[in-house]
Amino acid sequence: MIRAVLFDLDGVLTDTSEYHFLAWKRLADELGIPFDRQDNEALRGVSRRESLLLLLKGRPATEEDMQAWMERKNRYYVEYISQMTPENLLPGALNLLQELRANGYKTAIVSSSKNTPLVLERLNLAHWIDAVVDGNAPARSKPAPDLFLLAAERLGVVPQECLVVEDAAAGIDAGHAAGMRTLGLGPRERVGHADMVLPDLNGVHLADLKPVLE
Ligand code: BG6
Ligand code: MG
């Protein structure tokens, strides 16, 4: 039986995945590296460093270059997210969090992003969340299971009692590696390997999740 629902943040509860894309695109343009939305699909859910390596596609770079480019991308990204308000929650997200809590489920945010605290503050979500595990934790990022396992530990539940909600292939892989059930949001080409797939959380109620909650 599921007792806790672990939500990814970027692309699940809020539309920051678009800001990540815009910030990487800006850096890629400045470096003269071709980069489009299709290239961006591979970056979804993976860490900042891994994203840069994917963007560079084998181009040579020193550690100093990498640090400078990651910092530059992050500066652009922080510019975008600093403008966010609770209006940037995706449709259905807050409602589902509230329904889960009202029905005794524990909730957590599990994100690879080091910017999670700032995004959560902008969204004013703290009240509906029991635990936050993010990219600042000393753990491997997704697709490793570490962040999800840490969240289960903090919530006092075992992995088999957790449902992971993710928009990224790497996130679904991480959930499965942790021994958890998974709900994938987005196209089947991306998250078709999840236990249940929905386009997004718009209009989704607890009852709709019955197949993965029982
Ligand atoms: C994930 C995003 O949540 O966090 C990725 O899906 C991003 O696109 C990763 O690269 C790391 O984020 P940040 O904010 O630490 O650069
Ligand atoms: Mg995501």
UniProtKB/TrEMBL annotation:
| Catalysed reactions, semicolon-separated | beta-D-glucose 1-phosphate = beta-D-glucose 6-phosphate
Q: What CDD domains does the database record attribute to this sequence?
A: HAD_BPGM
InterPro entries xref list: B-phosphoglucomutase_hydrolase, Beta-PGM, Beta-PGM-like, HAD-like_sf, HAD-SF_hydro_IA, HAD_sf, PGP-like_dom2
Q: Where is this site: Important for catalytic activity and assists the phosphoryl transfer reaction to Asp8 by balancing charge and orienting the reacting groups?
A: S111, K142
Q: What does the record give as EC number?
A: 5.4.2.6
Relay the cofactor remark from the entry. Binds 2 magnesium ions per subunit.
Pfam hit, one = Hydrolase
What are its cofactors? Mg(2+)
Kindly indicate whether the keyword Protease belongs to this entry.
Answer: no
Task: Name the top EC class.
Answer: isomerase
Listed A to Z, the keywords are:
Carbohydrate metabolism, Isomerase, Magnesium, Metal-binding, Phosphoprotein
Cite the binding residues for substrate: 8-10, 24, 43-48, 51, 73, 111-115, 142
Residues of the active site are D8, D10
Could you tell me the Gene Ontology terms of the biological process aspect for this record? carbohydrate metabolic process
- Recorded GO MF terms: beta-phosphoglucomutase activity; magnesium ion binding
Q: Where does Mg(2+) bind?
A: D8, D10, E166, D167
* Name this polypeptide is given: Beta-phosphoglucomutase
Q: Which organism is it from?
A: Anaerolinea thermophila (strain DSM 14523 / JCM 11388 / NBRC 100420 / UNI-1)
